[in-house]
Amino acid sequence: MNKGKLIIFSAPSGAGKTTIVQHLLKKVPSLSFSISATTREQRRDEVDGKDYYFISKSDFLHKIAQKEFVEFEEVYSGTFYGTLRSEIQRIWAGGKHVIFDIDVEGGLHLKKKYGDNALAIFVDPPSLEILIKRLTSRGTDAPEKLAERIKKADKELQYADRFDVVLKNHDLKTACAEAEKLVADFLKD
Length: 189
Hints:
single chain; Rossmann fold; 5-stranded parallel sheet; alpha/beta
């Protein structure tokens, strides 16, 4: 497959996009996860090359200069995330469609670049208050990083209408079932 389709899941941090994407990867064998590159510190439960490609800021900037990214963002101050062109090519070469778990601006960049070949889904959390509770209960961020994530989440909620579909994640089981249907309908075309 030289060119498969792209399924883009975007949302503020804590909205449930990763859980929904993991569910879809178990249910839809024709999907393969696009591993993003990042300059952020690796968390103790994360695996390099599985959860992210963890690279130094200088390597990341070098890859930008070499045009190796399809999209990239400085998502948080000093912390970059991006999608390597080689990652999409790797998945398509394997005969699969690409599924992304990506920040809101990155998702919009991918949709703009790939147009009708991409389905962009915004995962909408029940409320900003519940999102804040989820982020706080994770215990993975220092207070200043947590504040930065909350501020960014509030801004990102305003982008929902720019996506092809807004998937309400008020009940995870329902959201996963709806995501399965959206993806199946998109892939059959």
